[in-house]
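Reopening this one. Same input as before:
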Amino acid sequence: MSAAPFPPSPAPLSAQASGMEHGTTPSAPRPEHFRAIYDALPDPAGITRVADGMYLEVNPAFCQLLGLSREQILGRTSTELSIWATNQERSKLVTTLQREGKVLNLPLNAQRNGELIPGQMSAQPVRIGDEDCLVFVFHDTSKELRIRDELLAKNAALDQAGRMAQLGYWVDERGKGLVFWSDVCYDIHGLPRGSALPKDYINTCVTPRWRDEMRRRIIDCLRHHTPWSMDVEIQRPDGTVIWGRARGEPVIENGRVLCIRGVMQDIDEQKRAEQRLRQSEERFSRIFQMLPYPMGISRRDDGVYLELNPAWEAMFGYSRQEALGRSVTELGILGAQDRAELLVAAQSSQLLESYELQVTLRNGERRTCLQSMRATEFDGQPCWLFALQDITGRKHQEEEVREREALLSLTLSTAAVGRWDWNLHTGMISGDERWRSMHGLPAGTMKGPAFLWTEPLGPEEVLRVTTEVTRHVNQPETPFDTTFCIRRPHEKERWIRNLGKVVSLDAEGQPERMLGIALDVTAQHEQENLLRRLAHYDTLTGLPNRVMLARKLADAMDQAHSVGALLGVAYLDLDGFKPVNDRLGHDAGDRLLVVAAQRMVRSLRPQDCVARLGGDEFAILLPQVHSVQECRQLLQQAMQSIASPYQLGRHRVGVTASIGYTLYPQDDADADTLLRHADQAMYAAKQAGRNRLHEFDTSQERQSRKVREQIQRLREALVRGEFELFLQPKVDMHRGTVVGAEALARWRHPEQGVLAPGAFLPQLEGTELEVPFGAWVLQAGLLLARALQNQGLPLPVSVNVSAPHLQQPGFARWVAAELARHSDVPPDMLEIEITETAALYHIDAVAQTLADLRQQGVGVALDDFGTGYSSLTYLRRLPLSTLKIDQSFVHGMMDDAGDLAIVQGVIGLARSFGYRVIAEGVETVDQGQMLTQMGCHLAQGYHIARPMPLGEFVAWNRHWQCPPEWKR
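Same output, byte for byte:
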């Protein structure tokens, strides 16, 4: 390891050692002594010539370091031997020698065959003989560095373990205080790592209540040389307080404590968990004491009570002190056999729920209880935690229910009524023996066997029952009520009426179970069919009556549209019938009418329809005619058949016919208008001389053109938003409250001002604008309901719907879509009012549409009731919610006994069918007072308020006062 050239040393060193004082100096060392020492050095050493850096001498350690022999090294330089790891190493050595004149422990890196050898170089210039030389020693630090790295790694691992365990290391020297903290100690105390250590740890970092205790333990440690440990609250600089666990042990030397070293652990979460556990136990104890159910803890092996709550004491009559330490059998609460059976029931699952048993109280009273038990531990002992529920009263009630059921069963048996039980979730239904007999089923009981309720029913009956279930769920105050037909092979059809009520709901509030009764109403249904035929057909001639004609006319009009053919609508009146009837009597007149009806039917095609309108007036429908000429030819045949003589007993008489007709869709009117046009044409035929045909006058077309112009103006008004709905309030006269409002259309005409409905609604009837206008009315009504709701007036708003609008395909679905668009308006805030005429046409379709509306929650009112042709049969088929008494009857009831009887009848009828009833046109206090006396509490009319805009309605509602006469 040569660094030459190097300047000569200013103080040459003698090659021999100097002597020592006389008498103490041993003999002078010989050269072989130095050689032995030199060779024995553990570190590589040698001598190089300064002039050229050539190695003059090296020791064995040097040879071993390089892996070369002495002969391979001597006479060569460090550069030739490639000793230095880098050129910078040699330069650093030379620079240090030149600067300081020697080298002492200079870190340098040598290498051997590419292997790095770290070390420390020391060198001293000397003069040997006549040459300047350098004596050097190279200390290999590879092992030391490796040991240091291992120590650092172990220390890092230890440090990491301390951080993971939240365990910090500290040292406190006597007289100096804290001299070392690990990083975890800083973290525990909330201080930045490496910051200054606290001078007065106890007063700075320990909360006041723990300071004296910590001082005492440290003093004991110093005095008695004993380790110490304690849990303490640590106060951080930010004011937070955490729990820590400190441990310390003395470091003793020569019987004196030099320092205390120890560890600090963060146990805050552990402490707080312990606090939460204690709080939980306290809460459980409080709940245990406060629960109204008798509860306790008993040992599993012998049943000895370990804990009891006040409810147990109150029930059994023993104090807690008396019962603890004694078993359930000792106290006589349970017999040994009863307890053994209880344990058998509980042992299999370590859990027992609602086990029924008989217990004996202190006073000897026997009570029936449900006991629940769970296996647990209490103070390290296997125990049962038990709770009791006294069901003695419930048992008595169940016995009473069984007795009442037996009595009810006897009553139902006597009344020929069957009972049924329907699971609405599974659809399975079962019934008693009489019910099963009604359904043609094998004998059974209420408990089974059950079957799916849809099995004996057709699709229509299934839909009817489902709809009625939905209605009953939405209106639970009225019972489930439906009638359907049971059809069994080789058996007569049986009609069963079912009345029921939902008796239980599931966890989500949906109906789960329904109980009810069944009655065989086959005889009544057959009677209804007979009445229905009488309602649709003329009793004298057997021809369709007005009601059936209306249905057939509507169907024929639809057919004419679909096939593109003409529909002839004729009105026929017999000429000369009245004299025959007056001269020969009504019986003869009736016979003539029957024969005339038969002749007309035979003279026409099978698809044609002849209906009797009343008296000697008939209507004829001629579907699928292709020309006016074909229509006239068919009607001529009918006229000729009528004109033949009639033999009425001994009398031979003759009559003729006057017929007026119109062709649809050339006459593009509605059904009522078509009949009216044909009627007008018939009168024209009579005026022209009778016994002839007359087509509806074309001058009517001019009138139609005028109507179309008016409709166009109405269409423009609708687009421009000139229409507005006014509100007329509906009130409960008995309670004096506003219960709703009817929305009535008004036209804010730009020139004529506000126009009443009579000025424009008649022009809309039967036109293509009638349905769009009706749609606007309903949508505007929903907006009014929302506006009232926002004003704090959640009142139902009723809107009028015309027959064509109601009969639109998908009308109920359209209403549902509008309700969805106005989702903030509940469906029961909307009521639809229809007239009897609208209800009678296509009554089956209308009834289904109304049923769909009712299922959505929308109310349905029959307006102007009593002015049309409806019968009780129709009324029963319509799913209504309200009947409205026409104002003509309300006006006349004060003076006309007939009107009064009609009003009373409508009120009674509504009550029988479960409908609300409201009177229209109440204009005096006396009218309202009479209505309330008859049981009609709901009314609207000018005496209450005229129709008004929304803002006025809200203001009126705040100040309206009900007449005191109505509240009496």
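So the earlier flakiness isn't reproducible anymore. For the record, The chain has a mean pLDDT of 85.
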